[in-house]
Protein: Methyltransferase type 12 domain-containing protein
Amino acid sequence: DDVAWLKAQLASNSLALLASADAWHELRKGINPRTRERQLFDLNRHHGISHYPEEEATNHTALPCPGELLVEEHHSNYGEPWAGGRDVFEFLANTSALAPRDQVLEIGCGTLRVGLHFIRFLNAGRFHCLEQDELSLMAALRYELPSQGLLYKRPMIVRGGDMDFSKFGDTVMYDLIYSSAAFLHIPRDLVWAGLERLAGKLRPQTGRIFVSHNIKFCTRLGGDECTRRLTELGLEYVGKHTHDSLLFNHYEIWFEFRRPKV
Ligand SMILES: C[S@@+](CC[C@H](N)C(=O)[O-])C[C@H]1O[C@@H](n2cnc3c(N)ncnc32)[C@H](O)[C@@H]1O
Structure:
């Protein structure tokens, strides 16, 4: 399989894991990496970059992007390695048996750490996201989509923090709704308001809602009350999953919900 293949490539090229940070840095030999801060400084003064002079400076760039995004500061905005986004996609796509024609909604997609992988996989127009943070939206729209060549996928990314999904249309039916590391930051009543608005838009039986980290919006009400409110919305708790990261010692916890009846 893929993992065995990669391990064989590492072995045949003698690329073992190194024991220490010093050993890692010794490999640089003549490579002088710059910090993001330094890279940004150099970018802003055009150090070592072929660039147009003053009067031409604004005429050649179709989508001017802030330097902070070009040096990918936003890849560290939420702490965990950027590579974890791919783990989340793999887990959700496999567990929900996602197909390219499916319709997906992410609540709080941030800088598209996870969303990018969905956008690449899904057919055009099939990825929706509601996100409230301006800096994250700038990173998603001004850097990630154009730099990844994904503009043609026409994802619908809407600014908002009030669980108002009306801009996505009245008739949309979701096969997957997920929230990665976002519900834990959102007040309980707002999460419930969101679920109330979305329950009828989740495809009955096959559609899934996945929430990561914890479901304190539900558990803190107490088990019976939590189940009662879910039932009132026509939703059902399916179970809890853990998923290991491919690249670092980390696992993520996911809670799955479905809509059993039409
Ligand atoms: C920890 S980040 C996770 C971002 C992304 N889902 C990921 O896994 O990389 C949480 C995101 O939820 C967003 N968020 C928080 N409250 C929100 C709300 N009420 N509506 C929409 N987005 C919200 C934040 O702006 C932030 O982008």
The pocket of S-adenosylmethionine is lined by residues 78, 85, 107-110, 113-114, 130-133, 136, 161, 180-182, 185-186, 190 (CB under 6 Å). The longest strand covers residues 236-244. The chain has a mean pLDDT of 95.
